[in-house]
């Protein structure tokens, strides 16, 4: 769902206003955990070394990033890489060991209990995999529950809940109980309940991993749609690379508590930061992720009519079709200006993951 690419910005540093700003965050589990971030010799150890020396696990290891307003920020990694711990630290569902976290510039680590409750209820609501629906309440009352806690009056909360139930595609199911719903429908209720309180940020903890593949795809599309329509900021945990590539504007790829690469899906696939990331993305169909902006030979085509004009965010798969159909190179055009040219050699080079010096005439 990425709409913004950042050529030449493989670290994914921010350009938009941050909602969450995280600096040098650590979460260490184990005895004398707070000594680990402060001691450079301990901080430099790998997980096995740290465990042997101290009995500790650095679930989050000196992590810094911003979540920008309106983006879908995906935290991805294998099981045990630290995703859940990192995202729970954002609202202090898990207390960080060291580092700073700010939401809209406000220090989260300095918040008292009342302020924290307010943060979790109104500003950064979590959608869990096991959505914790109340079994004896109807769909409508489950969705209205968050509003009830906020003290919203009955008529208003029912009206708002009804609106949100329709938004997530559960029209007509308002009076059912959770046991009368499928897994995907229950997940929608969980999503609706989080949306009802209109939080600034939605935090999703592997929400769809228990769903079967078709329902999972439906829910992913639902998230894409909600994001497109509402532009809500979302932080989304997944261990599934294709889900991350589909949903993320940017992806933080974690390994052993560290963020090994932070960037757009295209950056991660086109320019893996190290061998670990390269191996991770090895089987990604590159032509579905990389755009012609990456594939093109920069520079104008010189032709007046820009043959086969493609927008710069067209994926390589579309360019392959266009070039195969016309039998000639195509221009990459933005606002009537030719940014570059893609030809057979460049497209094949991108698909194969090799540089392609050969050039063909437009
Ligand atoms: N309460 C705890 N005490 C000790 N170690 C913990 C605790 N919680 C998590 N860990 C360890 O921290 C590391 C990161 O765990 P975390 O649950 O954040 O990973 P994850 O990437 O979310 O994994 P999964 O995808 O399996 O949920 C793991 O090594 C885990 O064993």
UniProtKB/TrEMBL annotation:
A molecular function GO annotation: ATP hydrolysis activity
Coiled-coil blocks: none
PROSITE patterns reported for this sequence: ABC_TRANSPORTER_1, ABC_TRANSPORTER_2
Chain ranges of the ABC transporter domain: 45-281
Gene Ontology biological process terms from the UniProt entry: glycine betaine transport; response to osmotic stress
Xref: SMART domains: AAA
Keywords linked to the UniProt accession: ATP-binding, CBS domain, Nucleotide-binding, Transport
Keyword Transport listed: yes
Transmembrane segments: none
InterPro entries, A to Z: AAA+_ATPase, ABC_osmolyte_uptake_ATP-bind, ABC_transporter-like_ATP-bd, ABC_transporter-like_CS, Gly-betaine_transp_ATP-bd, P-loop_NTPase
Keyword Ribosomal protein among UniProt keywords: no
A GO-annotated cellular component: membrane
Pfam families reported in the protein's UniProt record: ABC_tran
Entry similarity comment: Belongs to the ABC transporter superfamily.
The name this protein goes by in its record: ATP-binding cassette domain-containing protein
Organism taxonomic ancestry: Bacteria, Bacillati, Actinomycetota, Actinomycetes, Kitasatosporales
